[in-house]
């Protein structure tokens, strides 16, 4: 008698738990039932299913962080001369995440160089104003501090390098220390399209067989631990619908040591640098063809000048291939939104769009309150800044989309909770 009662109580407990947990789990897991490109993509190591296997282009994405000095701009232009082109004869793409000051404020960005590179077709993103230390600052920074650092830097770039803020869509946090919900809430509010700060991938090369590289994804569902794998790791825990993440899949040196930032892997000659990059390329190329991200600090080229020769040889090898595309990070994300096969890319328009229009002088700038006169006045004035440039921060359509998808996620959550409630009510009445 007592035993039966106990069993039925245990059964009741299990059923109620299942009723509550299953809808909850559904709301937490990303599924292609409710997350489809272009606005949403679940984290995955598989190529978009719409692509025919065997005709998937391999994207290679170079990005550089920190301040842009004339010397660094010279490195970039040696690596990416105008004649370095993709299979459709358009220039290879590069992304620069620019900070105003360097580490410990030793060097500052030369905005005339940034402007020149932007006009050559480089994508410009932000890396912060100050790059301040300690590194943990970026873990703990408040929402307001993220606004000042990132929107402030976007403002400086628009003012001094005359880049329309709407063209500055990407962000990387200094020292790869993500700022959790504060960082991503700021990004959603201030119309950033993507982040590229979250480190993922196994730390042992052998494990890459079972855990291949992750494709870019959206943060409609908070990332699981393996997707935001850096200590101490202030990872976002709220959903940020429509915000893209270009993940930093770990690379491996020729000796098998892991690194998230390409220049943390040691090389000892130009040839070794080439073999190191080639090895990581082949893992992507012969696997699922997730975009290969190469994240480099330009100090790599200063420390050892053979690295420049190694990267140069690698780039020439890449651009000699008919199914490899060296593109900007924003282009890689556009491709994720609307994946195209290699043949489709080859057939697509030859409009290369390497000369973005100059900033209009008369539009209004709605981020003027974030202007930091101290930082700005200490930076030398370039000819480009003599006219006060003003422009709109971003297109309103973009913001609307964020709100739409956030509402959608909230209403889905509401229905799941309602379902769970009705379910437990039913169980209660049936059994008791
Ligand atoms: C590289 O640096 C070494 C000395 O550090 C110098 O002798 C050599 O000429 C440099 N090579 C190039 C290609 O700049
Ligand atoms: C690229 O480098 C690899 C490895 O050294 C070599 O086998 C291949 O032929 C090269 N491809 C091109 C197009 O240069
Ligand atoms: C900016 O000026 C140009 C010509 O000077 C004009 O055609 C355009 O309408 C102006 N834009 C705004 C937003 O006022």
UniProtKB/TrEMBL annotation:
Secretion signal, residue range per the UniProt entry: 1-27
- BP GO annotations: carbohydrate metabolic process
Which UniProt key words apply to this protein?
A: Membrane, Signal, Transmembrane, Transmembrane helix
User: Which InterPro entries has this protein been placed in?
Assistant: CE4, Glyco_hydro/deAcase_b/a-brl
Q: Where is this region: Disordered?
A: 377-403
UniProt lists compositionally biased (Low complexity) regions at 377-393
Signal among the record's keywords?
Answer: yes
Q: What transmembrane ranges does the database entry give?
A: 413-431
What is this protein's name?
Uncharacterized protein LOC106173985
Q: Give me the gene this protein comes from.
A: LOC106173985
């Amino acid at each position: 008698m007592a035993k039966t009662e106990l069993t039925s109580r245990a059964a009741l407990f299990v059923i109620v738990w299942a009723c509550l947990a299953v809808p909850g789990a559904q709301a937490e897991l990303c599924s292609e039932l409710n997350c489809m490109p272009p606005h949403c993509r679940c984290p995955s190591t598989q190529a978009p299913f719409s692509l025919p296997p065997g005709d998937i282009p391999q994207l290679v994405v170079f990005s550089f962080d920190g301040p842009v000095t004339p010397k660094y701009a010279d490195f970039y232009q040696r690596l990416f001369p105008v004649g370095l082109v993709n299979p459709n004869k358009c220039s290879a793409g590069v992304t620069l995440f620019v900070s105003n000051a360097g580490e410990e404020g030793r060097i500052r960005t030369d905005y005339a160089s940034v402007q020149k590179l932007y006009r050559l077709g480089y994508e410009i993103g932000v890396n912060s104003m100050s790059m301040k230390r300690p590194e943990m600052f970026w873990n703990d920074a408040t929402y307001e501090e993220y606004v000042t650092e990132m929107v402030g830097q976007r403002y400086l770039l628009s003012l001094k390098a005359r880049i329309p803020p709407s063209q500055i869509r990407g962000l990387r946090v200094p020292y790869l220390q993500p700022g959790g919900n504060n960082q991503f809430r700021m990004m959603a509010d201030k119309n950033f399209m993507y982040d590229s700060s979250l480190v993922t991938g196994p730390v042992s090369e052998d494990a890459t067989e079972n855990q291949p590289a992750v494709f870019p994804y959206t943060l409609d569902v908070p990332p699981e631990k393996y997707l935001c794998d850096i200590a101490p790791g202030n990872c976002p825990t709220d959903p940020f619908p429509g915000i893209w993440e270009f993940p930093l899949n770990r690379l491996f040196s020729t000796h098998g040591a892991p690194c998230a930032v390409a220049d943390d892997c040691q090389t000892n000659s130009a040839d070794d640098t080439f073999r190191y990059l080639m090895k990581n390329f082949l893992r992507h190329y012969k696997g699922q063809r997730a975009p290969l991200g190469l994240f480099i600090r330009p100090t790599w080229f200063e420390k050892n000048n053979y690295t420049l020769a190694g990267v140069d040889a690698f780039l020439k090898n890449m651009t000699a291939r008919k199914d490899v595309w060296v593109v900007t990070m924003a282009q890689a994300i556009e491709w994720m939104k609307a994946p195209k096969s290699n043949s489709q890319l080859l057939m697509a328009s030859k409009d290369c769009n390497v000369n973005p229009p100059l900033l209009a002088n008369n539009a209004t700038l709605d981020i003027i309150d974030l202007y930091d006169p101290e930082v700005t006045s200490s930076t030398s004035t370039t000819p480009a800044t003599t006219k006060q440039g003003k422009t709109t921060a971003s297109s309103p359509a973009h913001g609307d989309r964020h709100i739409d998808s956030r509402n959608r996620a909230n209403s889905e959550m509401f229905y799941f909770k309602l379902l769970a409630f009705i379910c437990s009510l039913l169980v209660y009445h049936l059994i008791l």
